[in-house]
Amino acid sequence: MELSLPPSPVHLAGLRQAARACLRGVASEAAHDMALALNEAATNAILDGSGGGSRSRWWCTSTTT
Questions:
Q1: What are the average pLDDT values for consecutive 10-residue runs of the chain, which has 65 residues?
Q2: 28-44 and 12-22 are packed helices; what angle lies between their axes, rounded to 10 degrees?
């Protein structure tokens, strides 16, 4: 998954949905923790680092064994 989002909290729900879709097949507790961590990182980037209004890019690669 590769996702580029404007620096706005209104886009966080879409980021969480995309992360959950990317993490299908990963144990549910681990997937939940990863989606939560990604949401926290994105929130911090938006609130503290978006200064110039540039888009944030997020990648997710999931492999299951």
A1: 80 88 90 90 79 62 56
A2: 150
